[in-house]
Amino acid sequence: MKKILLLLFTLQLSLLSASAQCGIENTAFKSGESLSYDLYFNWHFIWVKVGTAEMDTKMTTFEGKEAWKSYLITRGNNKLDKYFMMRDTLLSYCDPDLSPLYFRKGAREGNRYYIDEIWYSYPHSFCQLKKHRVDADGEVHWKTSTYKACIYDMMSIFLRARNFDATNFKKGEVIPMPISDARNLSNSWLEFKGKETFKMENSKEKFRCLVFSFYEREDNKSHELIRFYITDDQNHIPVRLDMFLNFGSAKAFLKSYKGVRSAMTSKIK
After folding, report:
1. Kind plus residue range of the DSSP H or E element containing 80
2. pTM, to two decimals
3. pLDDT tens digits for range 115-135
4. What totals of helices (H) and strands (E) does the chain contain, helices first?
């Protein structure tokens, strides 16, 4: 019995240490934070408002344990629907230290609707992903992948990146950020672009910002997918996102925020 208890205790420590390796201390947000964005698309050299996005984060429970719940909902308006329907809902659960536990994306993009799901576990200091995908044609796929390194998804990596300490970052510095969906693992990274001052759309507010670009390597070529402008303060709130899509360019501008954790010291008066 003692040997069995010792084995269970050792396994438990192994699981905890593996999960801890993938975590980071949260200093950027608190439960109840809510961010709202306006979405714009470049149509014939004119930027047209085509929708909205909402991101909420709160502390709740997942499978009986305390966890962060974060979701992002993007909705195109009637202008965009005429050309390309966009209805995306992303959901993420993470440990209190932001180690990912579960991810789901339900996306209607054009005439396609698909679902991605990932369940995370950390056996024997590895990162294991149980993946589930429902294709647009209804075909269902299941796959389990195990990695030595920590793997993230689109939501958990976002929460993690908001907690980076950029005090000593140098322009051009690269941070590896392996991200998976239910199909495959991407070779991706962040590059620090430096600091800029950004004026909010339709307001007089200005913010000192840290600028990062998210890159992915595919077919032996590097592609910049998103450029982030985040507040240069403890909150690290994205105030602007430039998205380089297959069908054009899009931007998201922060419209409102509430429930932030710290004072917005990046705001220029």
Report:
1. helix 78-81
2. 0.86
3. 999 999 999 889 999 999 999
4. 3, 16
